[in-house]
Write a structure and sequence with these properties.
Elements (H helix, E strand, L loop, with lengths): L1 H15 L8 E6 L2 E8 L12 H9 L2 E4 L19 H4 L2 H14 L11 H15 L8 H11 L4 E3 L3 H9 L6 H9 L1 H16 L16 H20 L4 E8 L9 H5 L2
Parallel strand pairs: 2-5, 3-4, 3-5
Antiparallel strand pairs: 1-2
Helix pairs in contact: 5-8
Length: 266
């Protein structure tokens, strides 16, 4: 009886005071599967290396590492994209002016973007912005976790894979023009969001998963790039065999409305 009471009390304490980590993470138990959900940043700062020893111990005892895509495979996920009409015919004059100003700030030539799909231009601009803030791909959390997992000879499971992610971007209406326009409109807000996510790793992560995040996507884009993917990942994770897994997904998927932990706990 005493053991039963203790287990019930321990369960209550665990629900009231979940395990806290100095990185953005949450533990989720699905019957006989234990998920350590890590809020990754795909590009990081030098200070984010090496990974916390406690996180590496989580990985050491895990049966597998789960990531959005294995980015250590090498090669570009971009193929020879079909060219488009010039940006002068696709953007309004004020949008062209904003893009021209950003290109000047980033020391980029607009000519390199002129016939690329809008979603690809948006990704290239976002990558340049992250680099200006001191972020590099080889310091990204998922990249470091992948390297550690392979050194430990741990299996790696992809939730999507790079080609699926590119297919999603290609499926966006109007070649992803909404993503480019949101990138231009919310340029400074996105910079603050990147800095916020870095602080979650270097200082302290938020304790409340339903925090209010700066809006950098329109409602339709947020649904396509965050909410729908969370729902799909939830189904993938629920279908896992029994075991212990470290799951690294973009940090924004762990917070805000319809976040992945909340979906898994329903």
């Amino acid at each position: 009886m005493t053991g039963t009471i203790w287990r019930s009390l321990h369960g209550l304490i665990s629900r009231l005071f979940p395990a806290s980590y100095r990185w953005p993470a949450q533990d989720i138990r699905l019957d006989d599967r234990l998920l350590h959900l890590v809020g990754s940043i795909h590009m990081g700062t030098r200070d984010m290396q090496p990974l916390p020893p406690r996180l590496l111990r989580q990985l050491q005892k895990a049966d597998a590492l789960i990531v959005e895509a294995d980015i250590t495979q090498g090669g570009s996920p971009f193929d020879e994209a079909e060219t488009r009409e010039p940006l002068s015919l696709r953007l309004a004059p004020d949008e062209q002016a904003t893009l021209s100003a950003l290109c000047g700030e980033l020391h980029l030539s607009m000519i390199m973007f002129d016939t690329l799909p809008a979603w690809q231009i948006a990704l290239m601009l976002q990558a340049q912005q992250a680099q200006r803030l001191g972020l590099r791909p080889d310091y990204g959390i998922d990249f470091q976790l992948l390297q550690a997992a392979k050194a430990m000879h741990k299996p790696v499971i992809e939730l999507e894979g790079a080609q699926t992610q590119i297919a999603l971007l290609k499926s966006l209406p109007d070649d992803g023009m909404a993503l480019l326009k949101d990138t231009l409109t919310h340029w400074h807000t996105n910079a603050r969001l990147l800095q916020m996510m870095v602080s979650w790793w270097l200082d302290a992560p938020p304790r409340e998963p339903r925090i209010t995040l700066p809006s950098t996507f329109s409602s339709a884009l947020n649904d396509a790039l965050i909410s729908q993917r969370n729902a799909q990942w939830c189904e993938r994770l629920r279908a896992l065999p029994s075991g212990h897994y470290v799951v690294a997904v973009g940090a924004l998927h762990l917070y805000g409305d319809e976040n992945l932990p909340a979906l898994l706990q329903r």
